[in-house]
Amino acid sequence: MGKFPAEFADMLSARGQVMLRQGFADTARFAGWSANKDTGSGQTPLAFLPGMLNKTWAKQARHLLDATMPAHVRRIESRIPPETISGMRRNYTERLPKSMRI
Fold it and tell me: How far apart are CA 8 and CA 27, in angstroms?
């Protein structure tokens, strides 16, 4: 696979195709949870739907991403400068710069 398919439907398994044809109306049945289970927000909870993507496509997509992404990303490492910690007057009342390690 040299690129991702233009259509989402091309990535789906047979089970995913059935769900797509049904318009995702019966997501609860596919996800294995009751439609009346709600988080209290009045919205449908996020569903984990295993088996919706074609396994062969998913493997090829992962290999495509592994092959193409390194050219577009770089390692980021940013530590909190020590002087911002030692210079604090009171705990948790002053802001520290954000830190990340990827």
Answer: 17
Burial class (CB in 10 A: 0-12, 13-18, 19+), 19: buried
pTM for the model stands at 0.51
CB–CB of 76/100 below 8 Å?
yes
Backbone angles phi, psi at 76, to 5 degrees: -120, 130
Q: What is the pLDDT of residues 69-100, one digit of tens each?
A: 988 888 777 777 777 777 777 766 666 666 55
Confidence (pLDDT) at 56: 92
Q: Which residues pair with 53 in a beta bridge?
A: 12
What length is written for the chain?
Answer: 102
Q: HEC string of the chain? A: CCCCCCCHHHHECHHHHHHHHCCCCCHHHHHCCCCCCCCCCCCCCCCCCCCCECHHHHHHHHHHHHHHHHHCCCCCEECCCHHHHHCCCCCCCCCCCCCEEC
